[in-house]
Amino acid sequence: MQPQIALIPNEILRRTTRAVLAFAALSVLLAPALSGGPAHAQSVAKPGPQAAPQAVPGFWDPRRRPDRPDLSRLTVIRFLTETDYPPFNFTGPDGNPAGFNVDLARQLCEEIKVTCTIQMRRFETLLDAIASNRGDAIIASLAVTPELRARVDFTDPYYRAPARFVSRRDAVMAEIRPEYLEGKKVGVIAGSAHEAYLKAMFTDAELHSYPNDEALRSALRRGEVDFIFGDGISLAFWVNGTDSADCCAFSGGPFVESRYFGEGIGIAVRKGNDLLRQALNWALFRVWEKGRYTDLWLRYFSVSPF
After folding, report:
1. For residue 3, what is the DSSP state?
2. Greatest extent of the chain over all pairs of C-alpha atoms, in Å
3. How far apart (Å, rounded) are the C-alpha atoms in residues 198 and 123?
4. Which fold would CATH assign to domain 71-159+263-300?
5. Which of 2, 104, 208, 299 has the fewest CB atoms within 10 Å distance of its CB?
6. Which residues, given as ranges, of the chain have pLDDT below 70?
7. Domain ranges of the chain
8. Are 102 and 34 in contact (CB under 8 A)?
9. What are the CA-CA distances from residue 236 to residues 3, 89, 180, 195, 278 (Å)?
10. Is-same-fold flag (10-56+161-261; 71-159+263-300)?
C-alpha cells in the first residue's frame, strides 16, 4: 500500500534552518559573507575519504536561454524580504538588509540595470504588501506551492530545499541507494515528507522516528542510528556548527523529488506581472551564466546543502 505523502507545509519548509542557527554556527558560515570574501565549499566540510564532493546547485539549462524582455519599461523594482531569517535575510552590522536573498536581489538589479529598493517586513505581511502594491517582488525564501500560485506568480526556482542523509564521519558513503541501506537504522522526523519518502523508497531500511531535530541528531551522535535523513539546508548548518561536535558528515547526494520536497524557492510577483517575472527569469539566468550565483552560494554556504 502506497503511504500517504506528508508534504512539507510552506511555513515549515521556509523555516527549516531556524532552529540550528546558533551564534557559533553563524559566525563560522557568515564571516566570509560579511567580509565580502568568497568561501570555498570544501575548506570546512571535512568529509570522510569516500564523501561525495560538495556541489553548487544549478537550476538553469544552458540550452534554454530565456529571451531578453523589453527592460525599458522597468523603471524601479521594489523588493520585499523578511526581517530575520539568516543567512538568507537579516539585518547587517550597518543596519541595512543583508543575506543571500538580499545580495541576489542586488545582483539581479545590476543585471537588469534598474533602480531597486529592498524593504524588510515580517514574513506574514509580505503577501498582503505585494497585493496592495507596497512592493513589486518578494525574495524571502518563499516556497512555491499550489496554494501560493493562486495568489502570486513565481519566477523559476533559484534554489531548492534538498533532502540529505547524514552519517557519522567514520561511516560516510559516497553514494546511497535503497539497497545500500538494507537493515540499516535510519532516523527521521515523525510525520514529515522525509519519513514518507523513506517509507516509499527505502523499504528495506529500519526506520526510527523522532519528534524533533534535536532528538534526531542526538540519536546519530549517540550511535542509536546509522543515518539520519532530513532537510539538507538545516543539516548543512548543523554539520558545520558546534552542536554536532564534528561528529558527522553528509553521505550520498541530494534528493529533490518535488512530489515530496516541493517545487523549489522562487521570487513572487503580483499575478499577471509577466514583464517583471520574465525580466527576473532572464536576470537569474544571466547571473548564473556569469558564475556570480556560484560565488554568492559559496560565500554563504561553506558546507553545501547539495
Report:
1. P
2. 61
3. 31
4. D-Maltodextrin-Binding Protein; domain 2 (3.40.190)
5. 2
6. 1-55, 57
7. 10-56+161-261, 71-159+263-300
8. no
9. 28, 17, 23, 19, 32
10. yes
Q: What is the pLDDT of residues 38-75, one digit of tens each?
A: 333 333 333 333 444 446 767 888 888 899 999 999 99
Residue 258 corresponds to which amino acid?
A: S
Sign of CA dihedral 142, 143, 145, 147: negative
Q: Which residue in this structure is represented by grid cell 534535536? A: 214
C-alpha cell at 208: 526510527
Bridge partners of 90? 98
Q: Look up the pTM and report it.
A: 0.74
Residues 99-139: tens digit of each pLDDT: 999 999 999 999 999 999 999 999 999 999 999 999 999 99
CA dist list (Å): 7 to 98, 197, 257: 30, 10, 11
The pLDDT score that the predictor gives to residue 137 is 98
CATH number of 10-56+161-261: 3.40.190.10
